[in-house]
């Protein structure tokens, strides 16, 4: 909870401006350093309280080149969209400051106030809880989030409406709320009090105090240096490596049977995906040469390329590394995309990044919960997540590597890195075991396909997709 | 015009695959090198011809990790959107290959076939011309564009419809055309013949030939090494430096008069911008300390931050440098943004990039036309572009630099780079003169504000905005 500074002292505007600019430059300089962070400022409040004026004043005090303002009119929730999807693109990179006018809270309020079938208190509070969890994940990933509510009493609001310039009426109306209705005002206040206890509340009776309180709060946030945790607290409890990872089945599916089953299944899968009202995300992980590409090929066999998108995940770009590691996935999964297929996924955080040390212990140990929340948010917004681990034996991998090296159009698939990864086979098994134990949830269960026979794996993948689609 | 290879020879699929993969890797390796390029493949054609199948086969022959497929259902034109806006984000970066199913041509066909008030032949042909000019700009900026039309005779189409799997009907219907109507088929064919003379036309009677012709065409394109022009052809004709740049007015606006005028004008500008049905882009260029920031502040004075977005343009990021230099501006200007204000702009190409040598002579000399086309496309899609050059004298700049250095909250604005730029004052004057001469168009005229008095400049900027808004 943010301490409410009831006795805020006015600073000399010149000094305040210099302090803000210095803090901005320090933030900018932190880029890539251990204490790097970015600042996300969520702004909401009562109409005519003066949010816009305060942000404009802030822009004049700071160096405006390093302050971005994103301002959208609030929108009601779309049931196929998580609350963060419209905004994820604008999460600031290390060193940046972003003010967001339209944000998940204004959307929530708009939804609660406007839709014909409003969301009830339980749902409202569940949203709040998810939003706070999301913000905590942002903070853990070096995005400092602060929230500011611009408040105005009923009486003052009415007075301001009386004196409003006719030229401004147009914009004012855009919001769709009737600010002359005491009932609407009261219910909005009641709703926002369900979430503003960790917000900076600004009483907007007086302009100068309003702008100063806002700017001083930003200044404190800019100056606050996060201590990024480096060391994990307790001992890590390694999961037992399940049998499915250690000894994949050696049974071979006869070729004719495979052909028949594949034909039927790929048709069924295409139809089931096509007619399902939800969006579907299919995620593939597995050792190199485990058959991810081959499985994907069979999923899309009877689909038209316009019906799906395939994402092949490689190492992140520099601009992606300056944001939370899930950021690039937040932005890839789009509400308008019916079927998204991932060849490698966000689980890289707890696999390759853990093993190669790209993520420190605190980071990868925290990631399981972050990933679970991410998948839960997708699930809650009508997006089914179907996850596969393709398990093969170490011998089978070697055989496939060698076969690839001998096949002209496949030898490109084998690089030195693949052989190097193979050297860490046991580390991967441990990481996979932890991953399966900690992220196998009701809403996004793992399918472990454990077989050294490619064709069996493909058939099992298709069957698992059908099963999960039908299960719900 | 692409030569039609009537006697295409089938290649051994294994060899074709290896050749494609090798070409992909060569393309990938070209990144950052003199012959770097990316490849954009636009795909359209008759329903059921097998575009999807051919792309799927291509995906199996190449290394799918380095081929992206973007497939959207065609959409009718939105009159506030340029034809490239929905796709600009997906223009591939150096080293990448992108297949686009939904593209500006499919949108054009859909618009021509579907809307109640269809576009006439003249408009249709004008669109084609703009599209080709846009593609030429892409090519000049290292994006190789190829276009492939998958064709199918009326008879074969009907046969395929007869034998279509009922499960596929759903997708087929999404297209909205009645493929059983000979009239619709014929008018589509007639329309597409207006633009497909520089396309690769694939007759899709036979599957194997279809897939091979497509893949072989891609292979030729991948292998084609562009010769990026380095040297300009003729002598550059330097424009005469206009008086307005050399001797800005010294008249000073009395403070009281300024206050009165500013108050009235900022209100009028806010209202005019707000009630105009078009989107507005306001672009500021000027020497350092010319007053760009101050002018912007006065434009937004009576606006709410939710009504506009301000973009401060700095040096491009590495991922932006791997795309055409206008790319980052294509993506910043959004149809849903009413007012976009730029503090520095795309004119950087013919100013700082020309002067510092970041763009070679061919590149910056070509840029004037590219920029004109860009602004024309915006104009044609209901977006008014208002451009300012703020001219001050060299002495006035020095005075402002010194004043900034003495004002605590302004001294951050002055860096060594500013003094260095000042050293190239005359080079800048020449570049500005060329820019004004070559990009002062009917649809996007320049406003040269030539005064050493800050307040006069601000008033003139506001007046110019009002005038251009009312002129049309």
Automatic annotation (TrEMBL), chains A, B:
Residues 19-223, 255-471 form the Polyphosphate kinase-2-related domain. This is Phosphate--AMP phosphotransferase. The lineage of its organism: Bacteria, Pseudomonadati, Pseudomonadota, Gammaproteobacteria, Moraxellales. It comes from Acinetobacter celticus. It comes from the Bacteria. InterPro entries: P-loop_NTPase, PPK2-related. SUPFAM superfamilies: P-loop containing nucleoside triphosphate hydrolases. PANTHER family: POLYPHOSPHATE:AMP PHOSPHOTRANSFERASE, POLYPHOSPHATE:AMP PHOSPHOTRANSFERASE-RELATED.
């Amino acid at each position: 909870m943010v301490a409410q500074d009831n006795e805020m002292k006015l600073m000399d505007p010149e000094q305040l401006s210099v302090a803000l600019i210095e803090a901005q430059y320090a933030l900018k300089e932190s880029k890539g350093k251990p204490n790097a962070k970015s600042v996300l400022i969520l702004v909401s409040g009562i109409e005519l309280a003066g949010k816009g004026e305060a942000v404009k004043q802030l822009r004049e005090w700071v160096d405006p080149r390093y302050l971005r303002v994103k301002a959208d009119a609030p929108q009601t929730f779309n049931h196929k969209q998580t609350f963060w999807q419209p905004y994820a693109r604008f999460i600031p990179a290390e060193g940046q400051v972003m003010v967001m006018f339209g944000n998940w809270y204004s959307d929530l309020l708009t939804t609660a106030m406007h839709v014909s079938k409003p969301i009830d208190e339980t749902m409202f509070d569940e949203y709040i809880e998810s939003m706070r969890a999301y913000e905590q994940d942002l903070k853990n990933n070096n995005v400092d989030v602060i929230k500011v509510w611009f408040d105005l009493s009923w009486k003052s609001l009415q007075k301001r409406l009386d004196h409003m310039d006719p030229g401004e009426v147009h914009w004012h109306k855009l919001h769709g709320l009737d600010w002359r209705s005491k009932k609407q005002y009261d219910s909005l206040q009641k709703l926002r009090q369900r979430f503003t206890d960790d917000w900076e509340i600004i009483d907007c009776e007086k302009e100068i105090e309003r702008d100063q309180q806002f700017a001083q709060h930003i200044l404190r946030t800019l100056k606050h240096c996060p201590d990024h945790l480096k060391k994990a607290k307790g001992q890590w409890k390694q999961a037992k490596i399940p049998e499915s990872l250690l000894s994949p089945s050696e049974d071979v599916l006869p070729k004719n049977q495979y052909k028949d089953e594949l034909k039927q299944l790929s048709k069924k899968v295409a139809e089931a995906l096509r007619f399902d009202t939800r969006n579907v995300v299919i995620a593939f992980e597995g050792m190199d040469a485990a058959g991810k590409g081959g499985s994907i090929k069979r999923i899309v066999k009877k689909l038209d390329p316009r019906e799906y998108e395939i994402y092949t995940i490689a190492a992140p770009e520099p601009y992606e590394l300056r944001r939370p590691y899930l950021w690039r996935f937040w932005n890839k999964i789009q509400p308008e995309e019916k079927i998204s297929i991932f060849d490698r996924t966000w689980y890289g955080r707890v696999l390759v990044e853990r093993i190669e040390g790209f993520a420190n212990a605190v980071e990868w140990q925290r990631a399981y919960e972050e990933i679970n929340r991410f998948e839960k948010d997708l699930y809650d917004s009508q997006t089914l997540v179907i996850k596969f681990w393709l398990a093969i034996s170490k011998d089978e991998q070697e055989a496939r590597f060698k076969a690839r090296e001998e096949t002209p159009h496949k030898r490109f698939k084998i690089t030195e890195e693949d052989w190097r990864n193979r050297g860490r086979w046991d580390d991967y098994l441990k990481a996979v075991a932890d991953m399966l134990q900690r992220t196998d949830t009701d809403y996004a269960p793992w399918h472990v396909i454990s077989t050294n026979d490619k064709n069996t794996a493909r058939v099992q993948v298709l069957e698992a997709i059908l099963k999960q689609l039908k299960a719900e």
